[in-house]
Write a structure and sequence with these properties.
Chains A, B: Pfam families: TrkH. Chains A, B: Its main location: membrane. Chains A, B: It is found in: Cell inner membrane. The structure is a homodimer of 463-residue chains. With 463 residues, chain A is mainly alpha-helical. Chain A is 63% helix and 1% strand. In chain A, strands 1-2 form a two-stranded antiparallel sheet. In chain A, strand 1 and strand 2 form a beta hairpin. Chain A is globular and about 70 Å long. The structure holds potassium ion (2 copies).
Amino acid sequence: MLPPAFISLVYRDGGGVSFLMAFIFCLVAGITAWYPQRNEKGDLRAREGFLIVVLFWTVLASFSAIPLMLLETPNLSITDAFFESFSGLTTTGATILTQIDGLPHAVLWYRQQLQWLGGMGIIVLAVAILPMLGIGGMQLYRAETPGPVKDSKMTPRIADTAKHLWFIYVGLTVACTLSYWGAGMTMFDAICHAFSTIAIGGFSTHDLSMGYFQSPLINFICVFFLIIAGVNFALHFAVLNSKSLRAYFYDPEFKVFILIQLVLTLICFAVLMSYGIYQTGFEAFDQALFQAVSISTTAGFATTSFADWPTMLPILLIFASFIGGCAGSTGGGMKVVRVLLLYLQGVRELNKLVHPKAIFTIKLGKKALPNRVVEAIWGFFAAYAAVFVICMLLLLASGVDDITAFTAVAACLNNLGPGLGEVAANFAPLGDFSKWVLIVAMLFGRLEIFTLLVLFLPAFWRA
Amino acid sequence: MLPPAFISLVYRDGGGVSFLMAFIFCLVAGITAWYPQRNEKGDLRAREGFLIVVLFWTVLASFSAIPLMLLETPNLSITDAFFESFSGLTTTGATILTQIDGLPHAVLWYRQQLQWLGGMGIIVLAVAILPMLGIGGMQLYRAETPGPVKDSKMTPRIADTAKHLWFIYVGLTVACTLSYWGAGMTMFDAICHAFSTIAIGGFSTHDLSMGYFQSPLINFICVFFLIIAGVNFALHFAVLNSKSLRAYFYDPEFKVFILIQLVLTLICFAVLMSYGIYQTGFEAFDQALFQAVSISTTAGFATTSFADWPTMLPILLIFASFIGGCAGSTGGGMKVVRVLLLYLQGVRELNKLVHPKAIFTIKLGKKALPNRVVEAIWGFFAAYAAVFVICMLLLLASGVDDITAFTAVAACLNNLGPGLGEVAANFAPLGDFSKWVLIVAMLFGRLEIFTLLVLFLPAFWRA
Ligand SMILES: [K+]
Ligand SMILES: [K+]
């Protein structure tokens, strides 16, 4: 909270005081909570792991909401402050703010910084913690994929893993900032958008989002870094370590991820051309590429209102956001590797029907998958669907229309950001109850359902 | 096709000739196809089983479309005739007809009879054939549930099983007819509606469907027989055989099925009361019970336009139709037992997270389930979702709006009948392309996805 206070000082546009006050409050609260326990140490058990992850995210996001509540411009309700804070830290990027361009620089910076810090948390969560906890088949990554150290095992201690990954994360942010700046953004906008690009967050400093810049070059830079940020960071580490790009092309998830982006871009381009929505083929391609990648990686940046695109394109892209980014990336959704495994299992079922006595194993690349991983992924899929249906019914019950409810829940559960219908631009039109449901949906999505769901199990508290 | 020709003779309202002509055509075509193969016999292999089931349904429904094409009133296009015929035989009950009350009696009878015959086919398919083929976990029923013979194994030969089940099916139809007749329907209406009730089809002889009769007693009779028809017919057989109702209460699927009906009715009742939609509590309860059971068993009869009910009720009931009836019933959807197993597996996953080293087995009643069955059900679930998404995108691509596309596909894939939006009353507003997509969706739903999907596998044709 100190950087936005500093920003406020630089731009002299007010709003710095609330960040300072909130900082002092958090410092005091943090020390009070930490002080009595400062001497406790010990091994973490899985059960405590879940609790710590959930508490970490909720407490951090709740504290982060404080400066937003204290602000005078914009004057946010408690619900709205929490919504914006959770949306930032979970890198969802759904906003309740309107007229963003008029906000103080400190607030703008703060929102972008929330996303960037959220992205840092997600990387460590997804690469180091969830595989340890065995969430939704992610034990797959425990020691099996190319990891940050040479013997292809993850650095055992989380802190060490985190250091390596954050190095890549910061490096990418710097590269992205410089690219945006070089392409014509102000340094402030360049840093802010690099924050939300690498975090696949989708917050912007302008109401028109990336469309404000009207620059195909900036769009392309954004697409380039979104794709990089949508790839497993452990894979990036392996590539850096081996000093060869080969690891990318051996990774099945990476290949499918790229294929999805290509297919979506081509479908969007073909439909946009046949409906003659844009003047030139180049413009149509630019928009198709940008929106396809922005929505399907769950960034949620906009250049144009894809909600107004013809026929099935809006829903197609919303559906694509269910797939989302790769595991171990800052992207949301169910993750490419899980959908890939569901597909492989589906094909195996069909093959078993034709050859009932043959034994088929599911292979990812060259490795056969243990049944345990496949089972866990099925459980994940069903739980995802169940949480989706319940959240959507709750929104409908509070009076939201069908398409808004469907896409609002998809946008928050997939950590995407914008939806269709009433929430195509922002979430301000929704009521407080709906916003709280969506806050919970964001958290469910970001914590990969099970981390949060397990806390609802009576056995969790008994054990 | 002879009964409707006869009906036409009785009511002297035209339309009989086309049924006679179509009958002669089918007779000739059938003999021509059968004659060269009349001496071939041999064991059925699984692969041939799939082909026969799919061919049986498509050929029968195509032939059944012929009289509808030949009719002068209504004058149907080829697409519409196929849609109506497939909708009838798959017991979907979606119609492209408007102003049903004015149609000749022969046509009305014919549509109801299609549903009834379709129901007969489904019972045999679901109780005897799919378990043998091992579709979507239904091998579970191969020799495990209480079956029609005393040693709790299914009568091995399909023809024998069919005879027993059809006896129950015809008996229920007679009982339902007499009840409707006693409650005030004409004998024609009573038979016609008994046909579509026991088949969980949903076709009616009136535009207002069951709402035409404005009788709570008829509504209640309909609910009663829908619930009976929504239960596994093998379970009915076991009860008849043991002359005790005990088998029902030992069956986990039955218990969950009843629970779902109760919960949905209560939710609908509570919301309808709180919004004051109906004059009296009795009327609200009558409507809540009728619509909840009618939609969630996938019958699709209407008394009132539930599409206009407040808040989440329409979508809640559409979601409930995804669960549908019990396996081995005439109901559609994914079937209660599958959803129950997905739920149990989800809970097992959560328990495994808390106790990573413990071994949990999934039990249905007192029986532990083999992993093979659970896997097959997961595959079914994913394939169901994939077919749903693809059909919905195809409808959207042809220009249908979001909510219509979503509910039209749900209504056809779940063999439900009515949707929301443009297809709340009938499917006439849709284009030909959409109708063909939905015809395929009905067939996918009725053949439990895999029976049809396996034909798309190259290995199927190579083997
Ligand atoms: K996002
Ligand atoms: K139906």
